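User: Structure please.
Assistant: Input sequence and predicted structure:
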Amino acid sequence: MYNKSQILLAIILFSIGAALGTIGSVSLPIGLGVTGFWPAVIVQVAGGIWLGALGVVVGALFPFISNTYAGAPLIVSFLYLPSNIVQGLIPYLVFKKLGLDPALRSLRSLVHFLWSGVFVNNALGAILATSMIMVSGLQLFANPYLFARTWFLGNTIPMLFIGPPTLMILSPLLERIGVIPRRSP
């Protein structure tokens, strides 16, 4: 069960995710809420690592707000839902199963973060989003490869450069104030 501070963190993450998602979606857009720079993915990954299933749910739902602001039809947000779940779920499961440190205080935690929270989750997210749009029968983009590549790079670049410092700085703070448990490196 989640305590009050974890529920509060979930609400804060939802708000930050919606704001970052909106800013990202209009910064370098190619359409349908997909952009060349989407820093909100950090909220999906960190939320999953910090809050588990609750964080994954938050990461899956806040894009409905940012996609709407970016002008994407509501159906598109539903089609992106599997991608937005996977992007937070993979690192959550890896960190939970292996008992990794969310503050990335060990090389082991950092390496697992890189493959599960930067590359694999975003590659699978890009493939799922592109596939869902194509399978839906909606003719929403001309070049599926460009769409998937932009999704992947737009998520991977901020995750690679902003994700580790975010976890390294905020995880110890969240541990100190008792929002998340301390995990040894």
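The first strand starts at residue 29 and ends at 31.
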